[in-house]
Design a protein that fits this description.
The protein is an alpha+beta fold. The protein contains 23 helices and 17 strands. The strands form five sheets. The protein has a six-stranded mixed beta sheet. A five-stranded mixed beta barrel has the order 1-2-3-5-4. The longest helix has about 45 residues. The protein is globular, with a radius of gyration of 31 Å.
Length: about 700
């Protein structure tokens, strides 16, 4: 009934039903949150993380027999693990538990991350026995390629570009990518697949050109389908993340519609791709890449379609002017060619700039909302990086991969050429020397990003929300401008309103109207922000000010002017008092351990720091620092340590490095030895700040 009478409601009901069915198929087995010991046979899918003494792997349970359950994965931590490779089959005895996770403001939502990756359980390996060490061909191919690429200076970037594997990227490399806003260049997405498709389209078009005159339909089908197959193989090696899946679907639609000469607008293809991605994987909405990918593509299509129509009209008008002005017919063709080339170069340069600054603004707002950071220099750096990767790095890396794959298959089949095998070529990294050299300028700019001012700004949740709302107002202003300037008839608008729109179109130019709409919206948002941030503070502060005002007046801390009548109500003296100091206590969830944050006048005092595990994981990085950033607390005055156990002081070194001005209050001798004069003893400690007094009641 809804499908016939209310298709929009029908679509909502169907989408909720499909999402519920898929979720039930993955997680219906979870009946308890208590850890249980399980024995199961599983295949290693991927290596997620590797520390000094333990690894983290994703495995696929091969004993899952219920047809009602969809295939999910387990995330296992494995202490003192042997040499583990994807594709191996192991018999595990592991302590398994549900994917529940800690939840803190601004912190990493691990449960959402697990659901987006189809991880249905996590656990710790107690015992394991290798059953089968015969990985699939694709796993063997990727493992051998990783060994070769690891010999190169930029092998970590090439692994991400060619295989979608980012485990080799160091923390320093990740920091540089975040500072420059260039992380999208090493995440296989529409840019990479478009370059691969275009590269092989050019190759196959040249190779098959002699056959075009015999059967043009077959020529067109072959030259479009073969590049699509190569792009599909490339996406398969990357594991089909959200951005790759979206790009493959759109390429498939473009190819099919082009082969059969069917027209569909770019926006139709984008919506079809969005629909297909959410049908295949409804949990894609929990992935940040989903929003970044579709927002970026929408901006590119919006600019490209408008610029394309503008370029065609400009070239046509210029051609008519040239024909009218050129008197010598022999010079007309040369003049047209030179003019067209110059116009196209200028157009593509302006289009690149238009796309880049829009991408920088919109994605900065999305990045601020998702990750609480903004890359200031991403705009001009991507103006350099995107053409460099599109024209040189990606094509050379892909062609080199094809050559290396040919030698790899020759060695796999045991084929000998002129009595010699090609093992040296298969194991050598010299084939990728050119691609590695092309990445040298990229790596150099990443390294020098440490010296750029304000390389990476941290924004609070309130600032990120304000940035997003201003962006929404700006987009709304743009859409209103387009509506007012539209020449199309709008049946549901009255004649008087149409006349009003006509008068507005005559009064304002396009740029003036757009700027006015954006400025008015931004001013309104700024006023709303000031009111919503000032009034709650005054309302919360008034009772405390009233209750303490008489004491403050008697002590002389607040002074009244002689002209003020002393019989007035205390609330009328608020303007004469000092600013009110509000404070809050936040108890953070750090698993087994403790971490408390006192928030006082945009400053923070930390009590205990949570635990540290391995070389790379600390609750200070995972919980405390994101919480401080989300709250907009950039200054930490004191760090108190109750005692030097790992679950209470594991993140002290990290916090001490990030906040060098913070004083450390602890009695442990090892802490005093590590941090020297920064440490003050707890014995006799008494410190008063604002309305709080901190005292050490007992030392252990």
């Amino acid at each position: 009934m809804c499908f016939k009478k209310a298709p929009f409601i029908s679509g909502i009901m169907m989408s909720l039903s499909w999402l519920s069915i898929v979720f039930h198929g993955f997680y219906s087995h979870q009946t308890t949150a208590k850890p249980t010991q399980q024995i199961f046979r599983a295949e290693i899918v991927s290596l997620v993380n590797q520390n000094r003494d333990w690894i983290s792997v994703d495995v696929k349970n091969l004993e899952q027999t219920s047809a009602s359950k969809l295939q999910g994965y387990y995330r296992l931590n494995w202490n003192s693990a042997p040499d583990v490779k994807p594709g191996q089959v192991w018999q595990f005895s592991a302590r398994m538990k549900s994917i529940s996770a800690i939840a803190n403001q601004g912190g990493f939502n691990q449960q959402k991350y697990f659901i987006s990756r189809h991880i249905i359980g996590r656990g710790s390996v107690r015992r394991a026995e290798l059953i089968q060490d015969n990985p699939a061909l694709v796993h063997q191919f990727k493992s051998d390629l990783v060994v070769v690429l690891s010999k190169l200076a930029n092998g970590d970037v090439l692994q991400a570009l060619l295989l979608g594997q980012k485990t080799a990227l160091s923390d320093e490399r990740w920091r540089h990518l975040r500072q420059t806003g260039s992380g999208h260049l090493i995440a296989i997405s529409g840019l990479h697949l478009s370059v691969v498709f275009g590269l092989f389209w050019v190759i196959f078009s040249k190779l098959c050109k002699p056959f075009a005159q015999h059967n043009y339909f077959a020529y067109r089908a072959v030259t479009l389908l073969l590049p699509l197959v190569m792009a599909f193989i490339y996406g398969y090696l990357a594991g089909f993340p959200v951005a790759t899946t979206r790009a493959i679907i759109m390429l498939f639609m473009v190819v099919v519609l082009s082969v059969f000469n069917q027209h569909a607008s770019v926006w139709d293809r984008l919506l079809y791709a969005l629909f297909a991605v959410l049908v295949i994987d409804p949990f894609a909405i929990l992935s940040s890449g989903f929003y970044l990918s579709f927002c970026a593509l929408a901006i590119i299509l919006l600019v490209a379609t408008g610029r394309g129509a503008e370029m065609r009209s400009t070239l046509e008008s210029d051609k008519q002017l040239d024909q009218a002005s050129v008197t010598n017919p022999t010079n007309l063709a040369a003049s047209e060619n030179a003019h067209v080339i110059w116009r196209k170069v200028k157009h593509y340069g302006m289009a690149l700039w238009a796309i880049q600054w829009r991408l920088a603004l919109v994605l900065a707002a999305v990045q601020a909302l998702l990750f609480s950071t903004v890359s200031v220099h991403s705009m001009w750096l991507n103006m350099l990086f995107v053409p460099w990767f599109s024209l040189l790095v990606i094509p050379v890396a892909i062609l080199t991969l094809c050559v290396w794959a040919m030698f790899w298959f020759i060695n796999l089949l045991g084929i000998r050429i002129f009595g010699h095998d090609l093992v040296s070529w298969h194991e050598s990294a010299e084939l990728f020397a050119i691609a590695d050299a092309l990445l040298m300028p990229f790596s150099a700019l990443l390294h020098y990003s440490d010296y750029l001012p304000y390389a990476l700004l941290t924004v609070s949740e309130r600032q990120a929300g304000l940035l997003v709302l201003i962006l929404v107002i700006a987009v709304s202003g743009y859409l209103i401008k387009q509506l007012l300037l539209s020449q199309l008839a709008i049946p549901w608008i009255s004649l008087a309103r149409q006349q009003l729109f006509t008068a507005v179109r005559r009064l304002y130019s396009r740029k003036t109207l757009g700027v006015a709409a954006v400025l008015v919206g931004s001013a309104g948002m700024l006023l709303a922000f000031i009111l919503t941030n000032t009034l709650p503070i005054l309302v919360a502060a008034e009772p405390a000010i009233k209750s303490n005002l008489s004491d403050k007046l008697e002590s002389g801390e607040y002074k009244l002017s002689p002209s003020v009548n002393s019989k007035l109500h205390p609330s009328e003296f608020i303007a004469e008092s000092k600013p009110f100091s509000d404070w809050q206590l936040h108890v953070l969830d750090v698993g087994q351990g403790s971490a408390l944050v006192f928030e006082i006048d945009a400053q923070a005092v930390i009590y205990d720091t949570g635990a540290k595990y391995g070389d790379s994981f600390t609750y200070a990085d995972r919980v405390i620092v994101p919480f401080l950033n989300a709250r907009g607390l950039s200054h930490v005055s004191h760090i108190f340590i109750s005692h030097n156990d790992n679950d209470h002081a594991g993140g002290l070194a990290r916090l001490a490095m990030l906040y060098p001005q913070a004083k450390i209050i602890a009695d442990d001798e090892s802490i005093k030895a590590d941090f020297g004069k920064r440490v003050s003893p707890c014995s006799g400690f008494n410190w008063q700040f604002a309305q709080l007094t901190f005292s050490a009641l007992q030392t252990l």
